[in-house]
Each structure stands twice: as C-alpha cells, then as structure tokens.
C-alpha cells in the first residue's frame, strides 16, 4: 500500500509559517509523519511554486497525517492502486538535481607503486548544458528500469537555483524540470526507482516522478 498526497496552500499562509526555502519545506513535510523525525526518511517530496501559492507532493509507503498548518481544503490524498505501475508507457514530470563530481588531486599524495598521482572525487556541481542533462537522464533511466521515448519531444526546463539555510550553513541546489514520455523496460527495477526517487538531494524535494499512464499504440 502506498499513497500520493497533494498539498495546496496560498503564499500568505506559507510565509506566515516561514516556509521560505527547501529546508524549511523539508521540515514542514516531516510533520505529516508525526513521531518519526529521528527515523530514516521513507518518502519523497516535491514543492512547486504557483501564481498564488505552493503545491507540495508526497509519495509515501505510509499514510501521512494532515499537519496543523495545512487547511482541510488544501489536503488531498490518494491510495495508489496495485496496478498503477503495470503500464508500459507514462508521461512523466521530474524535478531533479542533476550534478557531476569534479575530480581533483588530493592535498597529500602517498607514493604510488606505479608512480601515478591518483585523483579523488571533489565537490559536486550542477549540470547546465542540455546535452549533459539529457545524457544524465538517460543514464538514470537505464539504471532505473526505463528509457526515454525518443519520438516524443523531451522538455528540459532552465536551471533554477534554490538557496537554503541550515543553521549557519548556506547552500543551494540546481533544479531542473524534465517532461516527456518514458517506456518501462524492467518493471521490478522501475517500481524500486519510483519509490526511491532519481538523483541526489531527495530530502530537499528532488527525484519524485509524477506519472500518468499513456497509450502509444
């Protein structure tokens, strides 16, 4: 049993509750699972800004509880049917944080047997070029039990920088929205991908696949 929850609140209510960045939203959506803040996160989220407020999505294996800050009319929850992931094709909408690691020389290098300097994995930086973003998505698809349908145009939105503060730490994520049609190639792997998400920064609202079954016959 799993659940897809949609939360709609207006901008004034969001700002009243100080939902000002991805980290404060991260904390707010944890309130949908009371008593579990110390446990490992077992759900995916996504927050989209609209012309008059915000829409937040939660994909979870446990049924969430409406938090006190969410008005009753802004709360919609739907149980995902067992057969929902049995289709072959889906229109998808993915908000992701595509990155790559910059390789660098270590500050201190121990003598190598073959005399070669070893590179170490450095910080991660966002991908911005369309060809790099498309290649990133195709790699994730191959790993995740699906492929992108080439005959349907793939829409790749511009990168949006999402800044946040966590205590004294300040950082940002590069947010990219992908929209297109996918074909499932391995149902078992695809189901795991659907519930575990795609890419990095999942705790901050990235990696959730919004799906709608389509027919290409």
Distance between the termini: 30 Å
Q: What letter string, H or E per element, gives the SSE order?
A: EHHEEEEEEHEEEEHE
Residues in helices, as a percent range: 10-25%
Rg measurement, Å:
19 Å
- How many strand units? 12
Globally, the shape reads globular
Strand percentage: 35-45%
Which structural class best describes the helix and strand composition?
Answer: alpha+beta
**What is the residue-averaged pLDDT?**
90
Give the quaternary arrangement of the chains: single chain
- Sheet with most strands: 6 strands, antiparallel
Count of helices?
Answer: 4
- Stretches where pLDDT is under 50 for at least 5 consecutive residues are none
Task: Give your account of this protein's structure.
- With 217 residues, this protein is an alpha+beta fold.
- It is 18% helix and 38% strand.
- It is built from 4 helices and 12 strands.
- It has helices at residues 11-16, 22-30, 130-143, 187-196, and strands at residues 3-10, 43-49, 53-60, 75-79, 89-96, 99-104, 120-126, 146-148, 155-156, 160-166, 169-184, 209-214.
- Strands 5, 8, 9, 10, 11 and 12 form a 6-stranded antiparallel β-sheet that branches.
- The model has no long low-confidence stretch (mean pLDDT 90).
Please provide a brief summary of the model.
This protein has 217 residues and is an alpha+beta fold. The protein is built from four helices and twelve strands.
Per-chain topology:
Layout: E1 3-10, H1 11-16, H2 22-30, E2 43-49, E3 53-60, E4 75-79, E5 89-96, E6 99-104, E7 120-126, H3 130-143, E8 146-148, E9 155-156, E10 160-166, E11 169-184, H4 187-196, E12 209-214
Antiparallel strand pairs: 1-3, 1-4, 2-3, 5-11, 5-12, 6-7, 8-11, 9-11, 10-11
């Amino acid at each position: 049993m799993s659940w897809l929850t949609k939360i709609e609140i207006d901008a004034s209510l969001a700002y009243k509750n100080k939902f000002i960045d991805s980290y404060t939203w991260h904390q707010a959506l944890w309130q949908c699972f009371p008593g579990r803040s110390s446990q490992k996160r077992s759900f995916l989220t996504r927050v989209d800004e609209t012309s008059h407020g915000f829409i937040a999505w939660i994909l979870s294996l446990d049924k969430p509880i409406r938090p006190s800050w969410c008005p009753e009319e802004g709360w919609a929850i739907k149980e995902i049917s067992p057969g929902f992931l049995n289709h072959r094709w889906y229109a998808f909408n993915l908000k992701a944080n595509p990155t790559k690691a910059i390789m660098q020389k270590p500050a201190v290098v121990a003598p190598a047997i073959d005399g070669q300097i070893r590179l170490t994995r450095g910080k991660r930086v966002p991908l911005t070029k369309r060809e790099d973003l498309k290649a990133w998505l195709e790699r994730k698809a191959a790993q995740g039990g699906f492929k992108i349908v080439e005959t349907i145009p793939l829409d790749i939105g511009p990168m949006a920088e999402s800044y946040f503060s966590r205590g004294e730490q300040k950082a940002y994520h590069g947010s990219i929205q992908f929209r297109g049609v996918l074909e499932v190639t391995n149902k078992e792997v695809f189901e795991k991908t659907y519930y575990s998400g795609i890419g990095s920064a999942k705790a901050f609202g990235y990696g959730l696949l919004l799906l709608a079954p389509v027919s290409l016959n």
